[in-house]
Amino acid sequence: MDAATQTFDRLRPRLMGIAYRMLGSVAEAEEVVQDAWLRWHESATDALQSAEAWLVSVVTRLSIDRLRAAKVRREHYVGTWLPEPLVSDSPDSPEQLLERADNLSVAFLALMERLTPEARAAFLLREVFDAEYDEVARVLVKSEAACRQLVHRAKEQLRDERPRFPVDRATHERLLQSFAQAAMKGDLKEIKALLSEQVELVGDGGGKVPNFGKVLRGRDRLAHLYYAVARRAEGSLQMVLAEVNGVPGLLRYVDGVLESVQSFETDGQRILRIHSQRNPDKLLHVRPL
């Protein structure tokens, strides 16, 4: 393996991290990184002052271009758009979990959809990847003052909607395990006990499967929804704890087929919000049962 390839492979996780957080799609992020690799392979890499700065710039700009095109498509998306989930069998290291808890969750990426492509890039580079403002300015080809404004406005747009209840991992897992057991049994009373009064469910079916076209709210409504699913799929419903975008979530299977990937916001005692990804096109990377 030559030095240029070694350098790229070393930086690949960071590049994928930027592209995925920008686009909310594993496939598109992989395509962006592959495109960056081709440009890297064709460039005079020996003359570069900083390989990392060059590659981060290329991946960020490619992601901005893709996100601009995606914004147009998402205006015609059927129902609510949610990012493609990243699912794994087990958690990463404590350091990686700490990094991911705030800036990789489905809730966070869904919020990021409110930002313009350039504001999203500026916010991610500065607040998630700790880039200095002069680096952000070079990537976006803007002044440092303009980049500071982009980041400031992004913070303002996101501030009131960020999760406010830091919950330790063990508590989050216990709550989801209890919810999974209640949901599989169809225990209406226990399901209600684990949901907050103003709980919300945000679903993405992408027009490919039946799904609610709006946010569902209220403990009774959501409890009866989960109860109805358990009754319809009695004996064939399984909910499996998994790592979803760096935090515990649930995979719901019906007759052994993945029906949804669900992520949760909680206050440690009750569930506050559920993001349910049901679009089969966005579940292709998730392992079978």
SSE string: HHHEHHHHHHHEEHEEEE
Q: What's the architecture of the largest domain, going by CATH?
A: Up-down Bundle
Approximate strand percentage: 15-25%
Supply the CATH superfamily name of the largest domain. PhyR, sigma-like (SL) domain
Q: How much helix is in the residues?
A: 40-55%
Shape: elongated
Mean pLDDT value = 90
Instruction: Supply the helix-strand structural class.
Output: alpha+beta
Termini Cα gap: 37 Å
Strand order of the largest sheet: 1-4-5-6-7-2-3
The CATH topology of the largest domain comes to: Butyryl-CoA Dehydrogenase, subunit A, domain 3
Number of domains: 2
Separate helix tally: 11
The poorly predicted ranges are: 93-98
The CATH top-level class label of the largest domain: Mainly Alpha
Query: Main beta sheet: strand number and arrangement?
Result: 7 strands, mixed
Radius of gyration: 20 Å
